[in-house]
Amino acid sequence: MTEPAAVKAALKNQAVETPSWAYGNSGTRFKVFAQAGVPRTPQEKLEDAAKVHEFTGAAPTVALHIPWDKVDDYAALAEFAQDHGVKLGTVNSNTFQDDDYKLGSVCHPDAAVRRKALDHLFECVDIMDATGSRDLKLWFADGTNYPGQDDVRERQDRLAEALAAVYERLGDDQRLLLEYKFFEPAFYTTDVPDWGTAYAHCLKLGPRAQVVVDTGHHAPGTNIEFIVATLLREGRLGAFDFNSRFYADDDLMVGAADPFQLFRIMYEVIRGGGLTSDVAFMLDQCHNIEAKIPAIIRSVMNVQEATAKALLVDREALAVAQRSGDVLEANAVLMDAYNTDVRPLLAEVREELGLDGDPIAAYRRSGWAERITAERVGGQQAGWGA
Amino acid sequence: MTEPAAVKAALKNQAVETPSWAYGNSGTRFKVFAQAGVPRTPQEKLEDAAKVHEFTGAAPTVALHIPWDKVDDYAALAEFAQDHGVKLGTVNSNTFQDDDYKLGSVCHPDAAVRRKALDHLFECVDIMDATGSRDLKLWFADGTNYPGQDDVRERQDRLAEALAAVYERLGDDQRLLLEYKFFEPAFYTTDVPDWGTAYAHCLKLGPRAQVVVDTGHHAPGTNIEFIVATLLREGRLGAFDFNSRFYADDDLMVGAADPFQLFRIMYEVIRGGGLTSDVAFMLDQCHNIEAKIPAIIRSVMNVQEATAKALLVDREALAVAQRSGDVLEANAVLMDAYNTDVRPLLAEVREELGLDGDPIAAYRRSGWAERITAERVGGQQAGWGA
Amino acid sequence: MTEPAAVKAALKNQAVETPSWAYGNSGTRFKVFAQAGVPRTPQEKLEDAAKVHEFTGAAPTVALHIPWDKVDDYAALAEFAQDHGVKLGTVNSNTFQDDDYKLGSVCHPDAAVRRKALDHLFECVDIMDATGSRDLKLWFADGTNYPGQDDVRERQDRLAEALAAVYERLGDDQRLLLEYKFFEPAFYTTDVPDWGTAYAHCLKLGPRAQVVVDTGHHAPGTNIEFIVATLLREGRLGAFDFNSRFYADDDLMVGAADPFQLFRIMYEVIRGGGLTSDVAFMLDQCHNIEAKIPAIIRSVMNVQEATAKALLVDREALAVAQRSGDVLEANAVLMDAYNTDVRPLLAEVREELGLDGDPIAAYRRSGWAERITAERVGGQQAGWGA
Amino acid sequence: MTEPAAVKAALKNQAVETPSWAYGNSGTRFKVFAQAGVPRTPQEKLEDAAKVHEFTGAAPTVALHIPWDKVDDYAALAEFAQDHGVKLGTVNSNTFQDDDYKLGSVCHPDAAVRRKALDHLFECVDIMDATGSRDLKLWFADGTNYPGQDDVRERQDRLAEALAAVYERLGDDQRLLLEYKFFEPAFYTTDVPDWGTAYAHCLKLGPRAQVVVDTGHHAPGTNIEFIVATLLREGRLGAFDFNSRFYADDDLMVGAADPFQLFRIMYEVIRGGGLTSDVAFMLDQCHNIEAKIPAIIRSVMNVQEATAKALLVDREALAVAQRSGDVLEANAVLMDAYNTDVRPLLAEVREELGLDGDPIAAYRRSGWAERITAERVGGQQAGWGA
């Protein structure tokens, strides 16, 4: 078993990036339910994100979404973040909320639309230069709804062309993170539907092109930890978008639907060296009906708990059982770690960092929820689905 | 084989109800793409629906959605419809687009919200009285997103109570149609997730409570035609909501994703006597990226083609093969009908009804699309996802 | 929270029936891997089952499978069981392993085959009379592989007829348990594919006809605990066939694939009164590659752990959170119980019953595995897939 | 639209390889139903395969499965085939039906088992040398059933090592075809679960390593034609294993479950140049309950019909509609081809080749079924699942 001190040290180093858009309203195609006190500006989102970091000590960076988080002065925004104890993180592009993108963005049959989308991606790189962000995360809503609607293969050619142009534009310390998604909003084909497609494109681009695994973007029954292990083996796992789902891309709190799966994923991350490499751990969630800040705190905690359990796996005993073909014993070694209640350990870790052992309770006591509900009245949030 | 004359007669009698909301804008949680010329009023929706009937001869009624189609004078609306050659059909309730319904409507933990939802359902019955509609179609977005969020069983009790109250309110010639849905917008539980749940509730209500099969509301791999056959055998198939899907509830044009499945469904409908009974055939679709009126015309045609093929099955030869256990021959008899090109037959049927054999071409020539694009400027549609 | 004493008492009363066939070899269509020491006779299966009960204290009965467990003298078999500390339990019929059943058994198009199948079911009732078994569990492999192969609706009529004949034959203290299965071995239709179909048949039969929930027999994404809650609400949950699956009907050890789901199921069982009613808790698993007896011990323990966690849910706190619409708190109350490490509690329970706290270790020390490997040489097991 | 003469020419050139094992008995884990007249020797399988070619003119080669088709003299077997009008085709390895392979073959934790498996693969290459076969098709049943059972990543290393050794052994005109499979017989992980994994391995091996798409080996909802288009774009589509499925790997007759999907796949094959390249089109099916030879004839015909429809797509009209963003028209162009009844065209093609227009009827009239039923009595087939 990993030494307790080493487990604690690993947990203290773990960082989960929270997404600015998760602090705003979200919903389904049926309804976006407005919540009181949600941020109306990028600055207010950063304030909320800072609260998550204040109580967890594990969420030091905030992902931006362009254009939702567009500001005139990114240096000032970065300073604002710094002043609140967090940093700006990954820049996320958006090529799906403009009427021009009805039939796609970088894969659109019309070159003018593709150009517009590409210009937006270039703008994102400019913003990265201004914010000092390392990662550009690309998710394309591109795809088709009906067989025959467009030429599946030409769309790949268009995609490859756009990716190459963006990759070319990146600085030496910047990365292109390509996200795949099984379905939605396109229903018949998705232009980057699986890890294989993302991987094949990244291979052609170069070493700073990496794949993003969004835990909600797979077909039913897919073994996600296998993909994680494979991408780590190939040196192409760039980041996670964490969330959880029962059926489709439900974007529920990570660990809420299948905590055992999250544990298995974190085990493969650790086993493959992903915890101490450049893999970025991000949340990508929608808190449609639950309070947003505590939901994000809970999500960070869920990642921590899965990580702690994965760190506790007795890897030597596991290797012995595996090599001897003792199926039950190997499984038992893994389950022993999973069945451990790691909450006391994590409370200790937090206390050693000078934090409250129970971040949710501490947040509730802080009065922040009441304050933003009272103060953030009027105005309008720029957000997704809003 | 069914006599050609009988096949034609059956096709001439077939009616597909189109939904008022399909004429308006729709989309996904990511974006609703606005289309030019979409209706802004219930009357304009009826005008468009009338065009679908004018060119297909098979869409004589229009389903209403309350409150999207609320008007002051329903008798006048019915007369407006009549003047345009169509009739008002099923009334659809909406208990999901109000902030109060964040945690449910008739299953909500708060009795005040349940009362509000029930009042809406009563209002729908009042509207049915005014329009002369036979059917009230109930789909509840109720459910939960997280394990533990609410008591699954108490929600059933609340649902049963509301359904009983509505059923009680119905007139002797009115029906309650209960729709089930596997998931979405709730992600963990749905309060009427499957036909079994809808059926069990209907059984307790009485004979005028019937189940609605929405072809997009099932788990992957579900054999929908089996459910159709079973509900017909039980005397509880009230209606269809037709659409098609590749993965979730995609609401694509019926027959677009799996035309063979639609054929099998129509075969079971015919075999179970559903074509000549009170089963209502409705569309429930979203034309997010394609032109709406021609998409609805195409959908009506797809239902007709599947029906024509199903009518052509040589049921005597099929029975002989089935009884003798000749698997390949029985399958071949079914496939022989499916592989037949029924478009010439349907063109004949239309021409015998005084229609153009090619409804899409006729619609395109009619100039309606250009006219509404030019005239319907300004104003705002009331619609779903809008 | 439930009082600790009450939790322990409930756990001490819990009984899980183990299936005689799980002690024998099993496999996939690709290969049945033989294991050393597997039973060759019903008596040897009972010996193994007795070991599971000896070390867990929670597996007092053994389900029989006819004809695999056919003997000349069932009274003697019952006495043999008694002498080894266990009892005979549910009788399982088998109408799938005879060449005559290629196109079905009770749903077969040929009346002679249906008659043969029905005679087998009657024989099973006779055996129940001899063994004193309460429950007859019926699972039919019936279905079709190709559209058109047989008449879906007539097959339901044939099924209803057979079920009625069997129900009629039962004694007043005997029950008919009808199991549904989504797919396999039939691929296009299954004659009892879902709980709704099983429920509808049971309703017509009478109160002693009850539904069996096999946890591996559902479409992907199905919420099984919802079905459990619904069947308990309807008074029609007769039994569980426990196992777990990642994709299809994998028949892995219960709790191995999704322990959180098993916990949620046990929570609904407890909440619906199923723990103290006549619901039968059975395993139905295949230990294709792992040692069978310890796998079954582990499975019993997994059920116990899930039950213990479900018993620990603070139902008062849960109700408060649910009624106030506090989504996060309600979920947290449930997760608090799930995240508890209940293994020490269960060790205590076992020790209070005079057992070793660690049944797997105790079994390993017992030498039983070595003994049967040495002694059970030659002969042939009668089993499934063998 | 493609010129009719060109369509006919393409159809006349199309070849579908039939698998020797499909002529033998097969089944599910529940039961293998024996059929009268099935082959008992490789020679008898070739005789049956020759009949399929005799009546379809489109099945000129037969895939072998080692060890099921092991003979002392492969040159003699090739000559036997030639004398019957067919040729030996792809060699399929089998590393799943030996007790040693319980925990895997080339991925097994034990080096001795891996060595045994590799020796078998080398033997297969030797057989290819003797038969003159071009392709070695590798499908590995390797995987794990339980989390923790083995090290996922080390298994990839072992796999890579074995593949490299086999690739090295191949002659310059020989290919390694790597097949992926989503699940079964392993239930937790499969060592080559998706096209991405197969593709990544092939990339490292070299240009003669190609991916096999088995149409039944995907998660629910997977867009197979997208994978086909992508692999063709990457130059890595080596072969198809055709069959169809409703839920899992059902191995039903190709085109039986979703003929529209098969059409879409063939469209992407043609669009990507796969019809005239080195892509091998093979069947891999199990005719568990239907007569085998006519089922295989029907399967070849289903591939031909899908191909004919795909050839009829008016690609110019399609491109115009696609480029102009006319979703409905583009879909309509595709559907127009799909809705065409191509059976008369295929009858013409056959007649022009001197064959009967209706291969099934011709086979039935031939008396072959009666002859083999009478003659093939006694003996035992070597086959899968038997």
UniProtKB/TrEMBL annotation, chains A, B, C, D:
Source organism of this protein record: Streptomyces minutiscleroticus
Q: Which InterPro entries match?
A: L-rhamnose_isomerase, Rhamnose_iso-rel, Xyl_isomerase-like_sf, Xyl_isomerase-like_TIM-brl
What SUPFAM superfamilies does UniProt report for this protein, alphabetically? Xylose isomerase-like (SSF51658)
Q: Which residues form the Xylose isomerase-like TIM barrel domain?
A: 64-248
Q: Does the keyword Chloroplast apply?
A: no
Q: Which Gene3D superfamilies match?
A: Divalent-metal-dependent TIM barrel enzymes
**Pfam families per UniProt:** AP_endonuc_2
Q: State the organism's lineage.
A: Bacteria, Bacillati, Actinomycetota, Actinomycetes, Kitasatosporales
Q: A GO biological process this protein is involved in?
A: rhamnose catabolic process
Its Gene Ontology molecular function terms?
Answer: L-rhamnose isomerase activity; metal ion binding
Q: Which of UniProt's keywords are assigned here?
A: Isomerase, Manganese, Metal-binding
Protein name (Swiss-Prot/TrEMBL):
L-rhamnose isomerase
